Amino acid sequence: MTKQDSPNGDTCNITYDDAEREVTFYYLQSQRTEKTRLGDLLRRMFIEAMG
User: Fold this and answer.
1) Per-residue model confidence (pLDDT) at position 41
2) Which pLDDT tens digit goes with each residue over 24-45?
């Protein structure tokens, strides 16, 4: 896991799932999750709202 602090005060935890080839960005203060799946020819972004 990697952590990044943004200027607006939110902290983002970044994890990578090798089996799913998926990167997850979880923003602690806003409780928002963004997932990016990496494919051979296609890169798709999935955004989930956590609430």
Assistant:
1) 39
2) 999 999 898 988 887 653 444 4
Helix, strand or coil for residue 45? strand
- The span from the CA of 30 to the CA of 10, in Å, is 7
d(CA 30, CA 44): 22
**Non-local CB neighbours of 10 within 8 Å, separated by 6+ positions:** 27, 28, 29, 30
Nearest to 36 by CA among 50, 20, 15, 22: 22
Work out whether the CA dihedral 10, 49, 38, 26 comes out positive or negative.
positive
For the chain, what are the domain ranges?
2-48
33 forms beta bridges with: 26, 48
